[in-house]
Amino acid sequence: MTDAAHQDLIRDQFTRQATPFSTAAPIANEAALKLIIDAARPGPDDRLLDLACGGGIVVCAFAPYLRHATGIDATPAMLERARALAAEKGITNISWQEGEVEHLPYPDSAFTIVVTRFAMHHFLDPAAVFREMVRVCAPGGRIVVVDTYVSEDPAKAAAFNRLERLRDPSHARSLALAELKALYRTAGLGEPRTSFYELRDTVTNLLARSFPNPGDDKKIIAMFETAITDDSLGIPVQRPAGSKGGDTLEYAYPVAILAARRR
Fold first, then answer.
1. Closest Cα to residue 36, out of 113, 133, 123?
2. Does the domain spanning 3-150+170-200+254-261 belong to CATH 3.40.50.150?
């Protein structure tokens, strides 16, 4: 798939997901956002950039702690949600830009904190995006990546990525934790500090904010059901007591928060 075709998929999916994704409880969870803020260690003179900022949740969470926060995203509908959220919260030390993160429209060392959340798995070349994050980060600044990650077992990783592509055709590939850490080492940043949490929800809610191709929802439910007994996805999946429908299954996606200073 070409970069342009993939960008079209992303814009299509996140135009439709703009509201349900931005308002989903696991995405807006304040405790999880606090973990990200703690990892970045913002101060009043910091300038933050959030790549693939979506509905602006991360930018708005950081804004009270620093001088200025910028969000960039390729999907206009997401930026509309971001502007609305900022207006609702009365936040003014922020700005938004439409653009693709593979070639950031900013000079070297323009920011002191560069973050991206739940986006690495959408990039065809995550290493190239990470290099751009490093480029626009000032020496001594912090680079923070937050994303779901897959099992180190290749078969389970492949199954999880297959499920996510069925659920969201703009999904490229979730990385293993070792691969996420390697982005930092390869860029000369050393071993990142790492913390963890989980995205917990039901398959019902997951599908309510997803837009798979017709018929793929049934395949998704079947994959979750199978994973209860064989751990084929490499993530916790369970059926609540007394439940019989597959779409009421509960799951937990593991999430890593990785942070390091640019040297």
1. 113
2. yes
CA distance 12 to 161: 19
- List the alpha helices (DSSP H) in the chain: 3-23, 30-40, 57-62, 76-89, 126-135, 154-167, 177-186, 203-208, 216-230
Give the span between the Cα atoms of 62 and 69, in whole angstroms.
7
Structure-token pair, residue 240 = 């609540």
Distance CA 263, CA 257 (A): 19
Chain centre distance of CA 17? 14
Tokens of 188: 């000369």
Amino acid at 29: N
Strand partners, 202: 250
CA–CA separation, 213 and 169 (whole Å): 8
As beta bridge partners, residue 150 has 176
pLDDT digits (tens, 9 = 90+) for 22-34: 777 788 899 999 9
Tokens for 108, please give them.
Answer: 């070297």
For residue range 117-174, what is the model confidence (pLDDT) as tens digits? 999 999 999 999 999 999 999 999 999 999 999 999 999 999 999 999 999 999 999 9
Residue 94: predicted pLDDT: 98
Q: Which residue has the tokens 């084929």?
A: 232
0.90 exceeded by the pTM? yes
- For the chain, the structural domain boundaries read 3-150+170-200+254-261
Which portions of the chain are predicted below pLDDT 70?
Answer: 1-2, 9-10, 12-14, 16-18, 20, 242-247
Q: Do residues 214 and 227 make contact, with C-beta atoms less than 8 angstroms apart?
A: no
